[in-house]
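TEACHING EXERCISE
Course module: macromolecular assemblies
Task: Read the component lines below, then compare them to the predicted structure of the full complex.
Student: A.B.
Group: 4
Components provided:
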Amino acid sequence: MRDVAIIGVGMTKFGRLEGKDLMDLLAEASLKAMKDANVENKEIDAVYVGNMLSAAINHQTAIASSLVDRISIFPAAADKVENGPASGGSAVKNGFLAVASGVYDLVLVVGGEKMTTADTDVLTDYIATMTHPTAEYVHGITLPALAAMLMRIYMQRYGVTERHIAMVAVKNHKNGMKNPYAHIHREITVEGAMQSVMISDPLRLYYTCPISDGAAAVILCPADKAEEYRDKPVKIIGVGQATDVQCVHEREDPAVLKSCRIAAEKAYKMAGITPKDIDVAEVHDAFEILELVESEDVGLFEKGTAHLAVEKGVTEIDGDLPINPSGGLKARGHPVGATGVAQIVELVWQLRGEAGERQIKKDAKRALACNFGGFGNNTVVHILEAMWK
Amino acid sequence: MSREEVVEKDFMVYRCKSCGRKFYPKHDRCPYCKGMEFEEVKAGDTCTLITYTKLYILPEGIEMPPLTLGIVDFGEGVRALGQIMTDNPRIGMKLKPVWGFLRKVGGKDCYGFKFKPIEEEK
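Instructor-supplied answer key:
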């Protein structure tokens, strides 16, 4: 197996992007990443497009072929990858495998979603179709309702208060303020978050990510050729993916995200490192409770202690272990298929020292991305390393 | 059957003939031992609420917020998710499965199990 490097990254602004359709977003992010990698005049062997909802809400299928047509990278092999909200992470993993195997030398991975043109109740319903059809969906379950039930059971077990959940939201909004690509540029307070509208008790509006449009892209090549394209290449040193039972009620322990735990263990094993070697992480906070639970289940904190790290400021941009310096899904936004790729784009910028005002204070060498699909039944973890450090 | 009516009905789950473990919903292979032969058995008359939420932003097909949803535990490793027929849920409360109207899906009425509180015996 060959080592694989990321030599280019790019993304669109995330948000309510009037006048830009799904293909506009995918093309923009792809061309930015190709420019960043200096491969505009090279032959791209393959493209993997992470997207969940094009057929459901954009009336468009086979979008990977459409993207090739838009950006003229014929005759590149082209596939769409769908894994719910982890479509982006799964697309990167597929690109990684394609380069690692030796089959392709230059691969474009792009994730994108155009969501804001769909009605909210229609979107909520489509997203809820990820759940078990007869044992979950038919009862009226939504993703916020599943997050709310996790939040209640987790808070009760570990003595976590609503204030802690609000503090995670405040941190992510603060980070988002410094991220020009973020959907939400608004500072919030703990008190304000705790008075926001109730979506699914105890989950409030400010503990939930927005509905966004956007796309993000990376260019992959064999690590030993990376410096032929540009300086500061980032190696993908670990990839892990794991599944769990679909129904939340069937999980061994409903307060544990076992797929995150196993995906991370696999990624650490491939990388030959431990959680202590991680300097910065992007985790999938579609709901703020998930930032706490995932950061524990991927091994960054002992179970039941992530809220204490938040209290101490450990996860802030200037802390010992910054989490979601981009603002996370909460503030950067969550164009579903884009998220897993956007996490990796952010981490590459952080490792290169190109994250502007939100650049973390510590000199980071290794970074972890956790992209969570379904309601935690299919998780993809990537570990990145700065090759020049 | 009217939308308001509920009837008592046994909540059936699957028991693996190889390892004896019970589960719900159906898997074509046992999640524990990969056995492929099952029998349907009754889960039990009562269950316990282990977590819940009151959902205010409802999906299409459900009209009256809030909708109380929860996860119940029947013991022996069997749990289920469903609507909880009370506005005052609490963790640990005892419930029984009943059959009734759940929601509309694609304009059609859907019926299924939901969970009704049992008055606690003194």
